[in-house]
Inverse folding.
């Protein structure tokens, strides 16, 4: 039995040990990172999300422990994360990412002029 097979057997016996409950979610996310080869960029499909992390399916074999930025909701929210799980499924990879900062760390990076002009206004 391989090391990965043994780990899979142990974790499947223990069950899901996540602190935050996952919610199924559809949609596209973008991942960006910097490594020894320069800047990387990949698009992925969201499988599920929680306060603590996100499960995605991606064509890129991003290495375990890589630090990435997850761009959500049309690039309006960016969350830093670490790749904690990676498994090849057909032509794609299923990745499990752990957010490294809480919800308060979300960043609004794509504000348009209407958002900025109406900020603080009451209707």
């Amino acid at each position: 039995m391989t090391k990965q097979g043994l780990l899979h057997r142990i974790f499947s016996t223990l069950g899901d040990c996540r602190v935050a409950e996952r919610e199924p979610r559809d949609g596209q996310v973008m991942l960006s990172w910097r490594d020894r080869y320069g800047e990387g960029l990949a698009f992925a499909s969201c499988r599920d999300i929680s306060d603590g992390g996100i499960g995605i399916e991606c064509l890129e074999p991003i290495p375990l422990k890589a630090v990435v930025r997850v761009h959500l909701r049309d690039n309006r929210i960016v969350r830093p994360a670490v790749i904690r799980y990676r498994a090849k499924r057909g032509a794609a990879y299923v990745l499990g990412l752990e957010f490294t900062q809480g919800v308060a760390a979300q960043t609004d990076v794509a504000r348009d002029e209407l958002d900025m002009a109406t900020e603080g206004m009451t209707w």
